Amino acid sequence: MPGDLVSVHNGLVFVNGKPLQEPYVESPPNYTWGPERVPQGQYLVLGDNRNDSYDSHFWGFVPRNQIIGRAVFRFWPWQRLGELGPTLKQAEAQSIPVQTDTVSQSTSQKVNFKVTD
Question: Rounded to two decimals, what is the model's pTM?
Fold first, then answer.
């Protein structure tokens, strides 16, 4: 969330000094990133396949006006089929990290999201 201090080290993501509990992550990150303070009006977006995701640890923060959607349902893998966490507006209101799955990207392309609350 904007204003949070985020870092990745020792296989964990830390937000404001506290490790995130992330049972959905495929494998612990094998890289070090940060600490970085998330700028106002921007977001840090990390994929669930941390070591192969082309995400904010690679290309930086995402401006809020570029977020035009969110993942609401997981289709793969089949054993994890189902709905995903809180909406962005709910997370902003409660100051909690948004946990959504993303698709790893091997090509450089712009991804837009739309908030649908």
Answer: 0.63
